[in-house]
Design a protein that fits this description.
The complex is a heterodimer.
Chain A (H helix, E strand, L loop, with lengths): L1 E2 L2 H19 L3 H19 L6 H19 L2 H8 L3 H7 L2 H30 L7 H26 L5 H29 L7 H27 L1
Chain B lengths: L1 E12 L2 E12 L2 E7 L5 H8 L7 E8 L2 E2 L2 H4 L3 E4 L11 H12 L1 E2 L2 H10 L15 H12 L6 E5 L7 H17 L1 E5 L11 E5 L2
Classes of the chains: A mainly alpha, B alpha/beta.
Chain lengths: 225, 205
Amino acid sequence: MKSSSWAAKAGWLLFKDLKSEFRTRYALNAIFMFGLTTLTVVSFSVGGISSNTRITSSLFWLVIFFSSMSGLAQVFVKEEESKTVNVLKLSASSGTVLVGKLLFNLVLLLILELVIVPLFIIWMNLSILNIWLFLSVLLLGSLGLACATTITAAIISKSHVKGALFAVLSFPILLPLLIVGIDGTRKSLEGVDFSAGFADLRLLISYVVVMLVASILLFDFVWNE
Amino acid sequence: MISLETQNLGKWFGKRKVFEGINLSLREKSSLVITGRNGSGKTTLLKILCGLIRPSRGEVTIKQDGKILILEKSRNHIGLVMPDLELYGELTAWENLNYLGRIRGLITGKEDLKEMIAGVGLKDREDDLVSSFSSGMKQRLKYAFARLHQPEILLLDEPSANLDEEGISVVEKIVTEQKERGILILATNQREDLKYADEIIQLGR
């Protein structure tokens, strides 16, 4: 019996969660159903009509926001509901749990986007003029979303009204991210130069750093209380 | 050399006092049996001892070779079996032990894990999903989980719950082994479990 590194432990937690998720589809079903439903409603109502890039990018982040609200809280809620949370507490350090769960939420979000984003582009008849800016905003926005939802999910997992509380707590935390994400996406649709969109990318990076630091500082207390 | 001490431990849920003034001092090769009526706080005390919940008053100190261990380090020396501790139903018995061991930082070979699972009487069931197990089989697997990292301190809550005669003899073997190598703390209402006690405390008197 040997001991493995801290990163390996977080990697194994991610692997365990992915295996559990693909067997139960506890969160995947929720985020895909919500994502596809929102996307269908949006594309039927304004698809092909709206050429306003600000509205289109707002709708794009709206779809991602609602989909993530429906599924990303499950990362801790499932552990509480199936009473496996104590097994995890006894087995892993709080740092391992935070990183493992954050990576899991990020992977879920990226899987969702892999399906939702191409569909959104096709159904909304979208032409992205600066694809690198679009992808950078999407990736950093997803990372910020995963960071914020992971710590919020940990906070609400012990409450009785998890779903409502998750949305209520997440919205003010995610508002700055959504505003910057929408602006960055708009710029990518309008085809502005990458350097012109750099201000948004810098804000997104700052958001991710702030959320990561806040999560590291808060999580041990949230997890062990 | 591991030791576990509590100083004036107390727990309240709101205004309701569960217990107070618990002072324990346990060294290696010793055992403690906690008894008391339902709701007297046996499970709560075990949860406090392994750091799953915080006491309202007092503290728990776990020392290794005289050095105080912080909460997360001390968990590497504690094994716990209790009714409200569930393993992952969607994973097999082997996957549960493998992943939970890996997350803890242990790299244990498949054969060793299979041996551990067989050791609690679940031979040839390592590739079955835990959700397909009976409550007795789940209880047996909890013993394999609790002993995965060979803890010096073993906490057992209602140790023979849901177990048949064969399961009870597995538990007796584990308890005897643990008494010889570390600290054993048992919360029970079964009179026959009192035979394991070097020391007994009764809660809720």
